Amino acid sequence: MHWRRFVLIGTVALIAGLLAGLPAATAATITVTCPGDSLQAAIDGADPGDQITIASGTCAESVVVHKNLTITGAGRTATIIDGSGTGMSTIEVNAATTVTISQVAITGGDTPLNGGGILVEPGATLSLSDADVRGNRALRGGGIYAHVGSTTNLTAVAISGNEAAGAGAGGGGIRAVGRLFATDVQVVSNEAPSGGGLMFPGTAPVAELTDVTIRDNTATTGRGGGILNSGELIVHSGEISDNHS
Q: What pLDDT shows up at residue 25?
């Protein structure tokens, strides 16, 4: 009886030792070439932690990112994700995911709901860098809408020519109900009834802006041509000029 237990324990120890000697799994890199490939199909087929690389070209689709991924283009003037004609946010980042996106232009989103360019769902974390968010339209957050409980990190991002339109609309460039951290960001020529550039409604959001330019945005009927804020806003440096309300 004692001998059998010894053999079992020894076998388990041997298997554990063999497994420990195996190399750790590494993240895969998936290459997407548009037109031709489907970015959504690449997202669906990826494993959490994988990297998707998009070559130069235009991916004419809206996508939902529903797992932890890194998505990298060939540059903001070279790789375009265009949601025109889909009636959805160009990119939707699902709840409780951590997503990194860089070196792309995000355009063409047009939704009657929230987040024309990007919708960041509750509990999600989005890090967006070296990117353009331009020419999108929604009810709230023409460029980006960040839900309560989300975290959005923006670095070297240009947000321009976006619009929030309709009854109760606000935040032409960004409407954040979650946490927003922006560094080296341009918010230019966006439009909404209120909060033409940026809108932080309620008391929950925390926004921190460093080296951010907010210029030539328009609140067409309400307040806050550049910024409409009722939360906690920290501005370290930047320029706020030539906004209209």
A: 63
Q: Which of 160, 118, 158 is nearest to 138 (CA)?
A: 118
Residues 6+ apart with CB under 8 A from 77: 105
Label residue 185 exposed, middle or buried (CB < 10 Å: 0-12, 13-18, 19+): buried
- Asked whether 32 and 60 are in contact (CB, 8 A), the reply is no
Q: Is the peptide bond before 35 cis (omega within 30 degrees of 0)?
A: yes
Cα(224)–Cα(155) distance, integer angstroms: 23
CA-based torsion, 242, 167, 88, 50: positive or negative: positive
C-alpha 4: how far from chain center = 57
Closest CA to 176 of 108, 232, 98, 218: 232
Residue with tokens 């960001």: 185
The confidence score (pLDDT) of residue 202 equals 74
Question: Is the confidence at residue 16, as pLDDT, over 60?
Answer: no
Q: What is the DSSP string of 165-231?
A: -STT-B-SSEEESSEEEEEEEEEES-EESS-SSEEE-SS--EEEEEEEEEES-EESSSS-SSEEE-S
pLDDT tens for 124-181 read 999 999 999 999 999 999 999 999 999 999 999 999 999 999 878 999 999 999 999 9
8-state DSSP, 123? T
Tell whether the model's pLDDT for residue 7 goes beyond 60: no
